[in-house]
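Good morning,

Attaching, inline, the backbone tokens for the sequence recovery test we're adding to the shared suite. The designed sequence is right after.
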């Protein structure tokens, strides 16, 4: 949209409303972290609830997944925890051998479909649609500049859609991706948000 005023960024708005606190936190949690306060914390919970309810009404199976997963699980999903640099936090191997913090619920969701240990008895057959709200942890390697705001942070909450399809016609995956894209557009439109 075209505004007749100079728009402010989300961090400037959030700080002005005292719902986002990010500056001067290095002594608490280091750089690239933040606090959501008052209406900011309530807004995050409301957005998660809104999105979960929307996707449940579309037949998605809700799941929660572990935040800590073995390195082999990451590798099976194409993520290399030992890469340099890596976006994966590894737990102290002297205390917990081969455990990492998940950067996305996708890694934990993939497990029940037999990627590693065989399917769970209650997982529906393809096409399956799963929704998961999780805390995501990422090291966010240095990009050459230090961003401010709720981008490239070390910890955040995300609602994720995940799907498993058959491969009989060869178009099922693309069709499910189109369905997910349509749902994302619906969510943003219903919230009155502009998007690309």
């Amino acid at each position: 949209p075209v505004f007749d005023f100079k728009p402010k960024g989300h961090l400037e708005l959030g700080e002005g409303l005292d719902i986002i606190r990010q500056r001067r936190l290095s002594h608490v949690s280091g750089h690239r972290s933040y606090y959501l306060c008052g209406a900011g914390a309530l807004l995050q919970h409301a957005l998660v609830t809104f999105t979960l309810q929307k996707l449940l009404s579309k037949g998605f199976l809700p799941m929660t997944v572990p935040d800590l997963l073995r390195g082999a699980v990451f590798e099976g999903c194409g993520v290399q925890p030992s890469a340099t640099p890596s976006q994966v936090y590894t737990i102290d191997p002297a205390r917990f051998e081969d455990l990492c913090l998940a950067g996305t619920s996708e890694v934990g969701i993939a497990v029940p479909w037999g990627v590693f240990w065989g399917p769970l008895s209650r997982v529906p057959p393809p096409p399956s649609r799963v929704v998961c709200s999780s805390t995501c942890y990422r090291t966010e390697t240095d990009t050459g500049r230090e961003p401010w705001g709720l981008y490239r942070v070390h910890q955040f909450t995300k609602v994720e859609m995940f799907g498993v399809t058959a491969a009989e016609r060869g178009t099922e995956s693309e069709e499910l991706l189109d369905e997910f894209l349509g749902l994302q557009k619906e969510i943003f439109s219903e919230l009155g948000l502009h998007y690309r």
